[in-house]
Every structure is written in C-alpha cells, then in structure tokens.
Amino acid sequence: MQEQLKIAGAFVGVIVGAGFASGRELLLFFVDFGVWGLVGALVSAALFTFLGMALAGLGNRLRATSHKAVIEAICGRHLGRFVDWLITFFMFGVTVVMLAGGGALLEQQFGIPALAGSVLVTLLVVAIVCLEVQKVMVAIGAITPLLILVASAIALYAVCTRSQSFAALDQLASQQEAGTRHWLLGAFLYVSYNIVAGAPILAILGGSARNGRVAVVGGLLGGAALGGLMLVMSAGLLSRLDSVAALPMPMLSIASEVSPLLGLVMCLIIFGMIVNTAVGTLFSFLSRLLPAGTAKFRVGAVVTGMVGFGCSLVGFISLVGQVYPLFGYLGLVLMVAVLVGWVRRGNAAKVAVV
Fold first, then answer.
1. What confidence tier does 69 reach under pLDDT thresholds 50, 70, 90?
2. C-alpha to C-alpha distances, 328 to 179, 229, 255, 289, nearest whole angstrom
3. pLDDT digit string (tens) for 251-272?
4. What percent of the chain has a predicted confidence (pLDDT) above 90?
C-alpha cells in the first residue's frame, strides 16, 4: 500500500499547486457557474480518477522512464511530438503563473507589493533549481497532506457558516465572468490543463511501480483525492462568493476569517505549494531542453527565471484567466489520446489472452 500512496501523493502534490492552492482557479472554472459548477466539479472528479488510473497504468505497461515514451505510444510519433512540446511549454506557462501567484499571496497576506513578492519568489525558485532541487521538492511536498486537511476544514467551515442561501449565491455567481461559456466545458478544461502538468510524474511513477495493479491503484487514489478536495473547496468558495469573488487568494481570505493564526498557516502552506510547483515545472521545462546539472542548465535557469518574471508582471488573476483556459483547450488533445490509448491497449490485452 505504501507504493500506491507514494504515486497518489506525488500526483496530488503536482496538481495542487497549479490548480487548487489559491482557490482562484476553482472560482474560474466551477464556482462562477453557481450550483451547476458543483455538478461540474463532480464530472471533473470522475475524470481525474479515470485519467490518474489510465496514465499510471500505461506508464507501467511501457515501463516508462519519461513522459515522452507514454505520449508517443498513445498519440503516435507525429502527434506525440506536438503533445510533448505542448507539455514542455505548459511547464513554462505554469511557472509564470506561480511566480505571479507568489507575489499576489505575499501582497494579500503581508501587504508586500506584488512586484517585490514576485522578485523574491523568482530568486528562490531559480536558486532551488540550480541547487538540490529534488530534496527541496520532497521536503515541501510533505506539506501536501496538511494542505488537504486545512483546506477541507476551511471549506466545510465556510459552508456551515454561510450567510446566504445557495439560491442567492447561485444568482450572484451568474453575475461573475467565468473562464468558459458553459459549466461542462469548464469541467473538461480544468481537468485537461491540470492533467498536462500531472502526466509526466504519473508516467514515470507508473513505469517504476512493481506491477500494473500498484500503478493503477496509485493513480486511482490520487485522482479520487483530487476530485474530493476540488468538490469540497468549490462548495466552500461558493458559500463565500459575496466576499471573495475579486480576491486573488480566496482560500486565504476564508482562513483569515476563521483565525489570523490559521490565515498565517494557510499562507505558509500555499506559499510552499506555489514554490514546489514552480520549482518542479521550471526544472521539467529546462531538463527537456538542456542537460540537468550542467553550467548551461544553471545559466538557462537564470535566463528563464528572468523571462518568466517579466511575463508574470501581467498579474496573477489575468494569467489564470488567460493561460489556463488556453492550455485547457490544448490539453483536450491529451485527454482524448489517453482515452483512446487506454481502450486500444485494453482490447489488445484481451486479444492476447484469447
């Protein structure tokens, strides 16, 4: 069971920073659709569960050591190259969003100007990428279970202490500008851009699992955990939509409402997850282009960090609204490819048995 939990934990750790920690992403794709957004969260939960199981299982069947092998196997050589580069440059896009998110977090909690906060986060992320990246990521990733517990408790508090009925909140949600035109499309796009970030780690961990069942169960547990967290957090954010709709870090606001100390704890947790995700995505982006551990790699980290910081000046809310929906549409290609690849290989296995 320990190996399954390792796969599940790694999957959750990668996705949480990019798509959950601040709560802004959930507002965009679910909460702004009101009650129907909660139905969309259920759809996304089912998709996360299936894709986690499928990607880890495919990685194990192919004994994958990188996402490239899995992507080419399910997409073919030509489409596989496109999806491979899609994943690579999505890593850079997520890094930019995280740099902006770190600045927005420090501004909301401590009043530090967003520009100064983004500079601090950029320097920290680049320094970690140039040094002991794996050890730091493991250390920060260890707070993922704490984030899940705290975020779930905060969300349940928001639901139980809401001042308006869900009917009134649903009406308020209809006045917000959602990330897509329809709640079901939002559910698919949310999963598709997140799975682009999660595919590399799932493929690699699935490939290293001792057998297919371990890989599949690990991916399934990770997907189910993400789905449950997403649903609970979305319900909590909808319960406080009247006060958090315009905030860059809505979950932090609700935590501070409960207690200033809890707000500080939540701030530190979100900051750790932002740094963890930014380090992981920047490292993945660079290692696809340059050999890791070399002088060129370190120079590339500094240059990419500077470019990423420049791009982050657009602002966290704007970036989430622009970058994530775009990569969500592109990530649909990967979702369809995984589904087709899973079905084909399942049929092939049945034929082989017969």
1. confident
2. 10, 20, 29, 23
3. 888 888 888 898 898 888 888 8
4. 10
Q: Are the C-beta atoms of residues 31 and 23 closer than 8 Å to each other?
A: no
The reported pLDDT for the residue numbered 104 is 87
Q: How far apart are CA 83 and CA 90, in angstroms?
A: 10
Q: Cβ neighbours of residue 179 under 8 Å, at least 6 residues apart? A: 28, 29, 32, 186, 189, 321, 324, 325
Distance from C-alpha of 191 to C-alpha of 186, rounded to nearest angstrom: 9
User: What CATH number corresponds to the domain at position 117?
Assistant: 1.20.1740.10
C-alpha pair distances (Å), 265 with each of 14, 40, 192, 246: 20, 30, 30, 22
Q: What is the C-alpha separation between 12 and 205, in angstroms, rounded?
A: 13
Domain that holds residue 346: 2-353
Quick one: DSSP state of residue 22?
Answer: T
E strands of 298-353, at which residues? none
Q: Which of 135, 197, 238, 142 is nearest to 330 (CA)?
A: 197
CA–CA separation, 199 and 73 (whole Å): 13
Residue that the structure tokens 């500077």 belong to: 306
How many CA atoms within 13 Å lie on the side-chain side of 297?
A: 19
- The total of structural domains in the chain comes to 1
Write out the DSSP string of 186-197.
HHHHHHHHHHHH
- C-alpha Rg value of the chain to the nearest Å: 19
Q: What is the DSSP letter of 142?
A: T
For CA atoms 28, 331, 67, 230, the dihedral sign is: positive
Say which residue the tokens 């928001």 belong to.
Answer: 158
Q: Which tokens is 306 given?
A: 């500077």
pLDDT level of residue 302 (50, 70, 90 thresholds): very high
* Alpha carbons 233 and 288: distance in angstroms, whole number: 34
**How many residues make up the chain in this entry?**
354
